[in-house]
Amino acid sequence: MAGTLSPEIWKNWDKTGKSEFMKLFIQLCKDNTKSPMFDKNGKIQNITHNLNLLVINGVHGTIKKEWVISALQELAALHSDNAAIICDALNVVDAETSVFENSDDPKERNSLGYIIRECEKFLSDKLLKERLEIDTLQEVGVLKTRNFYTKFIKIKTKLYYKQRKFNLFREESEGFSKLVTELNQDFKKNMMYKSLLDIVQSLIGCFNLDPNRVLDVIFESFENKPMDTRLFIPLINSYMNDHKIIAEVSGSKYLFLRNSSDTLAPKSLFVLTAHLLQHGLIKLNDIYSWLTPDDKVMQKDWDSDMKNAREYIQSLQVISLNGPKEDTIEEKDNTTDQYNNNQKLGLCEALLEIGDWDNAQLIINRLPEHFAMDYQPVALALCKLLHYIIEPVYRSNYKLGNKLKGRVVPPHKNPLAPKPVHTFLDLRKVAIPMLTTLGPSLRYDPLLLYKVIRLAKAAMNSYGIEATSTQPPTGDTLYYDILSLLDTTILPSLSYLECNCCVAETVWNIVKLYPYHVRYCLYGRWKNETYALYPDLLRKRADSEKLLKTTMKRVSKENLKHTGRSIGKLTHSSPGYLFDYILVQVQVYDNLIYPVVDSLKYLTSLSYDVLGYCLIETLSNAEKKRVKHDSTSISNWLQSLSSFSGAIFKKYNIELTGLLQYVANQLKAQKSLDLLILKEIVQKMAGVESAEDLTIDQLNAMAGGELLKSEAGYFSQVRNTKKSSIRLKDAMADQNLAVTLCLLMAQQKYCAVYRETQQSHLKLVGNLSDQCQDTLVQFGTFLGSTLSVDEYTNKLPSIQSMLLDYHIPNEVAFFLARPMLNHSINIKYDQLRKSDSNYKKLSTQAKHQKYFEAVSEIMKPIYKSVIPLHPPKVWEDISAQFLTTFWSLTMFDLCVPDETYQQVIGKIKQQSLQIVDTNTSKGKKDLERYITLMEKVQDEKKKQHEHVDKVLYRLNQEKDTWFLSRSVKAAKNETITRFLQLCLFPRCTFTPIDAVYCAKFVYTIHTLKTPNFSTLLCYDRLFCDVTYSITSCTENEAIRYGRFLCAMLETVMRWQKSKENFEKECANYPGFVTKYRVSNQYSDNLDHVGYENYRHVCHKWHFKLAKAMMICLDSKDFVQIRNALIILIKIIPHFPVLLKLSQIIEKRIEKVRDEEKNQRQDLYTLAISYHGQLKQRISSGHMLKESEFHQVVEKEKVQKSHDAVKHESNVSSKHNGDVRDQSDSAKEAVRDAKEKPENKRSRQSSEDSKLLPKVQSSELNNSKDKLTEKEKQPKESRLDKDLRKEEKRDELEREKDRDRRRERKEDKLINKEDRVYRDERYIEMLSPKDELRYSSERDRYYDDRGAHYLRDVRDEREIGFGNNGSNLRRSQEPPEPDRELKRRKMEGSTSKSSKHEERKMQQQMEYFIEKSSEKKERTSKAKDKREKISDEEKELRKERKIGRKRDRSEEAAWDRKRREEEKVAKMMSHQNGEMLEATPHAREKHHHPREKSPYLRERERSHDRIELRDKQYPFNRNKYYSGLRSTENKRR
């Protein structure tokens, strides 16, 4: 019915309900041919439900029973099927009422009985008896006797419980014999199963055969004739369609075989069962329970096998001391029997043979993982099925040729087997799941393995993937399916094969199409996970490791071929874990590196790639410490692996991208230790060395062209690096790693110091910083030499981007950008030159002008990009053009190494002369090669000369704008400060060639007569204060800084040795001007430093260098001592040259050597090395006496010179700015050189200005007496004269000692005032209003010294030439913003204080010199005679003593006055609301905060509290003062 009945129908049944009820049924009963139970669409209607409601309402009394009977009678007449439906409704109501019957009130059952009795009148008696229950029929009276019930019981018993008697074999076999004959005959092709079924049924009926036994006979016949599936399967299906009975009959066969332990299940039985399963005659669950063994037993056996394999590995790793034991009995036989007795595996094999993959897969999945495929027959059956499936697609995509057709696989005989595939995508449906299930058992069929790999290669090529760099294809492809096959099937199968290098190379053909990170993921799973899944693989791995250990013990240079072949055979199939062991041996024994590298030449391409992965995996091991236990250097294992990486990647073609990306990732993570790997790779593969110990000839060669560099600039001849350098360049091109590594290394240098090594040892910090620097230079050199200029320009960012966007330091940015700048300038020069119609006839001057125009146009944008990097005040002293010019040039641009060119040309000529007489073809080719090379070198020399001329013309045009002219005298100091800060210091420690370049550049701007540049002041600032520079250097930076100082000293000493050179290169040069005028003009020679004054200044510089070295050597600090020794070694050709200083340094070196002998061996080694070189120079006569170095000035001349200086200063202060004061540093340099006290002095006659020969100091004091004695006694013997001289000398020495003791007592009171003054000054320094760390009035290294500087360092200016080095400390006045103003105010009192300072310096120097010679004089004294001291000498001593006291009192008064002025100045500055000190410029965002400097980490400091002395020498101030007092007490 379409709808349900409303409850109102039953209430209004007599009025409208009946009519509505009947109306619904009449519509369904119109078509008498169709049942009213279903509608047109075949869906069940609600007619049965409505009839149930009708009867139930009648039974419950809702409507009258008569109305129900009447409605049922009418409905029965509407359709023939309604009677059956009414009976069903009555049966349902009968069941409901019988269940819920109330025995106390049987009203409903009575009503139902009445309705059934009345329905008997219009329903057939047969229908009621069929549909209703027997008890109900008896209850209502339809069945009036019990005969019907008895008859029903008998029929039921006969049908279901009575056993028939069949004719069994033991009784009569004729029927079964005929049945066997009929079933085992040779059937014709037109034989049908129906005719065979009729024969079987007739035999059963004729001979009354047991149907189950007949079914068993049919199974037996089917077993013997499995090829007649077309007859037996329909026969069985028609004969017995109950799958449970068929399964029971089949299972009884397996049960019988299981009970008979000696009998194995025949294969034919498995095939029979497989056919039944494939055709659906039985279900797998029905037959699976009959099969043995149980799944739990198999899981237990698999786990036991895995456990035994692991124990086997452990047993091989145990070292037995009791001799070899008997080999354990292999369990392979037991395993084979176990598999043969396994009925489930036999059924699985049969299913695969007939092509029933679905059921076979169900069985495989029920067994333990990899258990079924470990049974070879099962794996081979699956392989055979795969051959059939992939045959069409294989033949269509891989052809051997027209003549070689290959072995064609015939189609499968079973039509129900999986269909063969014809396209690559069809492989995904069946073939790939089969291969995944097969797993490493693919090894049983190498032919199929080859086919699968070739199909994978063909599929990848069809997607356009032919190289590693190709992007993965889009769309529906097998790209990732093949990857899964490699992981689960192909690579594990390769592990089982024995020394099959052909398969390994074929596998590599497909693996190499994937990017390196995908391949490395495969190798990781293959090495670390695959072997743990299979017991046989574990045993094979253990055996291979044992063989490899035996082989590695025999590796040496003598048997590389034999051991290499053994290693190659082992690694063909399973390279991963074997390489792990090899790398462990390399890490432990670094002498194995090169023998191992040479022995790996027999590896396959796949093995080489796996070796690259194993290297990265070993390097990335987080459990290993990358530094040694003392945390001062890189661990040995990392150094060994880095060296091995460079050697292996150079010798063999292994992809480098993965290792380079690993280094880049480490740099991103702020880890710079792995830069050692990149350094070794670039050095080995490209031949670019990062050598620091270049000789002078090599440095000169590095200033030439590429040919000269290759011939004379490297330690070893670069050989066999062309191919490897190209491979390295190609690897860099992948993912743009070249730019990435450059930028990361440039940023990592500061990160290594301030972030990465916060808790590391200072030595390690320096090593890492050097490593970053060296690797960056090495890498940049490699890129510049390997890439073409266009490639270099396109890959690297512009100089503006490096400076502003990446915040790379100037030295690195310009180092990387110089090739690009030179290329752009040359291109622009060619354009400008060729734009002129007469460019071929241009003069040299015109070409130089064109070059200058090209430079100006190219460099202008760079000038602008440099300006934002520094505060505006910087550009008040130097111009951006000068800064850019300095950083953009190299040694190649400034000079031509003509001598080196001539040496190389001479060497080539000599080599050509040796083979000129040979007539062989090889000799002629070599001769031609030498001649061509010589011509190229000569042409390169000529081109460099032209280039240098153009560069010098450019510099000559630019020099007037480099240093700006300012009216203030201090501008000269600021100019030199900026030059040192921004140019010399950063670059002189960058590379060795840059160190030489800096010295050459200073010489160049001097020779160009650059305005506003003081060469003398530049040298003075460099040599006078090098302590902090030495302390702040790393080891390699100290080497470069030493080279720089050596080159500077070479120029200085060349001028010092020859007056001719000085007059030629220094006289009348603006760099040696000592007075600067407003108009910047100089008119007379008095404004220049003379030759003798210059020699005095050189003497001072040597003195300052010696003092700085003594400070460092006495510091007890590792870094200072090491750097000082390194620099001393580098500058030994030019320092020391004074015999006195050499002896002092020698004693100090001996002290360091003795102290460090059993402590710090590296310092001990350096000290031994330098000591030997110094001794050799001393013994060879290279040292000079004081008088040979410069003219020694006597005391009286010193006094006159001071008076002249005083007069000159007073006059100059009155000229109202017409003539500016002499530069402080230059004036101090000249004055200090004149003030050097010596023990042996000459006296100048008042009438003659020439110097007389030196005489002893005693003779000076008694010159008149001696002359009188010589006149009176002209014939006195020589011996008597000598004795008198010695007596007088001894008496003077004793008198001097007594005077000194008295003077020391008098000095104690003054020294107390000095100490109080220093303490007050220290308290003032701790105030927050003192100087900042970086003042705008000076740089971080140097301060401007005025005349008052000498007065502030009066007690600390002495050098302790003995063993005690505490006197080497010095005090510096903190710089103040009004220094010039104060200096001018104090100029009037300068003469007095300088007089006192002069005398004090003289006394101190006399003391130290005399102290060193006291012992020799005491032992050499043969007589002890005294003579009375003349009255004249006593008067001189009294005058000197009174003068000293007067000077000290004046000095103390001046100090008090100065302190009062400073307090007033500070108060004035606060009252005006602004500080007089200039605040330091804010650092740029890319600069690292200073607080993270390793020199500042250990001590508490504030830039408002620290004096310059603490900035230079990191020691405690209180300890220093206490040490100073103790030293003074000891001395006195």
UniProtKB/TrEMBL annotation:
GO biological process, one term: mRNA processing
Subunit structure comment from the entry: Component of the THO subcomplex, which is composed of THOC1, THOC2, THOC3, THOC5, THOC6 and THOC7. The THO subcomplex interacts with DDX39B to form the THO-DDX39B complex which multimerizes into a 28-subunit tetrameric assembly. Component of the transcription/export (TREX) complex at least composed of ALYREF/THOC4, DDX39B, SARNP/CIP29, CHTOP and the THO subcomplex; in the complex interacts with THOC1, THOC3, THOC5, THOC7 and DDX39B. TREX seems to have a dynamic structure involving ATP-dependent remodeling. Interacts with POLDIP3 and ZC3H11A.
Protein name (database record): THO complex subunit 2
One Gene Ontology term of the molecular function aspect: mRNA binding
Residue stretches making up the THO complex subunitTHOC2 N-terminal domain: 567-642
Entry's family note: Belongs to the THOC2 family.
Parts forming coiled coils: none
Sequence segments annotated as region (Disordered): 1193-1532
Domain THO complex subunitTHOC2 C-terminal: 875-1174
Compositional bias per record (Basic and acidic residues), positions renumbered to this chain: 1193-1251, 1262-1359, 1370-1381, 1408-1438, 1447-1465, 1491-1512
GO CC, alphabetical: THO complex part of transcription export complex
Domain named THO complex subunit 2 N-terminal: residues: 6-397, 421-565
Entries under Pfam families matching the protein: Tho2, Thoc2, THOC2_N
Compartment(s) where it occurs, according to its Swiss-Prot or TrEMBL record: Nucleus
Swiss-Prot/TrEMBL keywords: Nucleus
